[in-house]
Amino acid sequence: MSVPESKYLSPVWRDGIFKDRVVFVTGGAGTICSMQTRALVRLGADACIIGRSVEKTEAAAKDIATVRAGAKVLGIGGCDVRKAESLQAAADRCAKELGGIDFVIAGAAGNFVAPIEGLSSNAFKTVMDIDVLGTFNTVKATMPHLMRSASPRIIYVSATFHYTGMPMQAHVSAAKSAVDSLMASVALEYGPRGVTSNVIAPGGIADTEGMARLGSGEEAERAGYVKGIPSGRLGTVRDVADATVFLFSDAGSYVNGQVLAVDGAAWRRQGAISVGIDKGMEYPDYLLQGQMSQNLRDPRKAGETGKPKL
């Protein structure tokens, strides 16, 4: 499905700034990462997107390739970031078919709403494995190729929950905190060898899988959340894509080891908000009463509502 350029890229960027660059993206068929990739390809890059679903990943790659004549976008489905050998094979294939790897976006992630008492060890481990082990595996698989690039850059897509803590997000807070720490370690160890390593931490981004999964879908709940954002609106995929273009461009060459929160300053008020609740549910009452929104839905199962199965 064709996406208007105005949805994923501001008009301030010069055409061709990423000519002859290759970006490797985990979670590349997701609503945020696909738009980051789309923006880079539009500005001259070729891309390799990785995902677990073969059909979804290949379809997304074909669609992204339409943004620029002659663009090469490789979609590798059936790849599990938790398995080092799977990622290594994907990275090697990307470098062989597209000529190398210059940029990496570590975007594969998992999330759902659950209180600690309703969170199984297996569910917690699943999120940690996808986000943390998956990020580590991504770095290990791509770094040999990045080291051959003239401008090696890595971006990790994180979150802001762990800055203040967030009810019903203990698993993701722990995982994203670890991702931010890995980012810093990579900056310290590989910065002297020319690699920049930075985090983009989106807040609530409109029309994404994350918002669908974490919000109740009720208009009143959404309006209340937006009212609490200092910038007065939800973020857009273009906000995240523009931040990505900046960090990968020459303008971002001296930005290293940093966390860039793209959230309209929402995290500054984060202690006063929560996820997975409906209008009228107040902290700490809903926790003490064991309540959570009955309107949560799993975007992977269209039309389904209710509590996640853990």
From TrEMBL:
The answer on whether this UniProt entry bears the keyword NADP reads yes
InterPro entries given in the database record: DECR2-like (IPR045017), NAD(P)-bd_dom_sf (IPR036291), SDR_fam (IPR002347)
**Compositional bias (Basic and acidic residues):** 297-310
Keywords for this entry? NADP, Oxidoreductase
Which CDD domains would you find in this protein's record?
A: TER_DECR_SDR_a (cd05369)
Q: What is its EC number?
A: 1.3.1.124
Give the enzyme class. oxidoreductase
Picking any one GO molecular function of the record gives: 2,4-dienoyl-CoA reductase (NADPH) activity
Q: Enumerate the catalysed reactions.
A: a (2E,4Z)-dienoyl-CoA + NADPH + H(+) = a 4,5-saturated-(3E)-enoyl-CoA + NADP(+); a (2E,4E)-dienoyl-CoA + NADPH + H(+) = a 4,5-saturated-(3E)-enoyl-CoA + NADP(+)
- Provide the residue span(s) of the region labelled Disordered: 290-310
PANTHER family from the entry?
Answer: PEROXISOMAL 2,4-DIENOYL-COA REDUCTASE, PEROXISOMAL 2,4-DIENOYL-COA REDUCTASE [(3E)-ENOYL-COA-PRODUCING]
Put simply, this protein is called 2,4-dienoyl-CoA reductase [(3E)-enoyl-CoA-producing]
